[in-house]
Amino acid sequence: MTRNTSPVYEARYGWDPKTIRVAVVCLFFAAALLLPDMPLPARILGLPLFGGGGLFMAFVAMSRKVAFRVDETGVLLGGSPARYKATTTHVPWQDITGFVLWRQSIGAVSYVGVTRREGAPALPGDGPASRVVLGILTPVSPDTVMSSRAITGWRFDRDQLVAAVAHFAPGTPLRDDRS
Prior knowledge:
four-stranded mixed beta sheet, elongated
């Protein structure tokens, strides 16, 4: 397999190990719910949950939409594949002061995000109510949460991120708060 030598770092949604595990579990439970001796209420509740969940995971993986991109214009924070256009945002280099890797303690999900300069324009979904909730539930500032993306459904390559940042914005710090 050849390694990408472009300074651009781009990660797309796809079949990462976690997505594969969740899809297999959903497939297993959906198949079990179709067994003839399964009670009807279990089928009514379980098939939409596990069948629909598995189909959604497959949709996300096969969408191949950009999850995270670092290039000469800044950072593209790819949105949810179900509402990609509405949840995708771009942060230009002039607004970026650094990068942060962090972990949400509930569910142990890792995130990659950017720290932004004071006075940078608000990002989609930003508002007073969301800031209060995020300030309580997350270990980083609400602004950092708004400019972060969960590392799920795509493969994160720290070395490629470091190389892209060094190429496009030399000296921009990367802080790893995942431990």
